[in-house]
Amino acid sequence: xxxxxxxxxxxxxxxxxxxxxxxxxxxxxxxxxKTICEPSRLKILFALREGEMCVYHIVxxxxxxxxxxxxxxxxxxxxxxxxxxxxxxxxLYSLADAHVLAVLELALAHAGCEGGEE
Length: 118
Description:
This protein is mainly alpha-helical. Helix content is 64%, strand content 12%. The chain has six helices and three strands, in the order αααβααββα. The protein has helices spanning 2-18, 23-36, 39-47, 55-62, 66-78, 98-111, and strands at 53-54, 82-87, 90-95. A three-stranded antiparallel beta sheet has the order 1-3-2. A hairpin with a 2-residue loop joins strand 2 and strand 3 (90-95). It is elongated, with a radius of gyration of 20 Å. It starts with a helix and ends in a 7-residue tail after the last helix. The relative contact order is 0.10.
């Protein structure tokens, strides 16, 4: 019986190896996770769930100072987590796409999960 389980594990390992994303995709994904793992950037992303905002209103929503928030916004924009557009004298920021929102919502749901249950 032990031998049968061993074969199942070999098959599962081979299937897992075959279905791994390409190395460049893994590295790009790891970079994206590194981008959102900083608490102030995560707060900014959650604030932007409510819609487009200028830096002044983002600072008001998440706290901190404008310089620090602007720095974090640049990092988020450089890593394609948010986008920006100019409207008159203001630059308005928003989530880059629905995928960013989906990742945030899923991560939040997982954080509230007890874990270990299937």
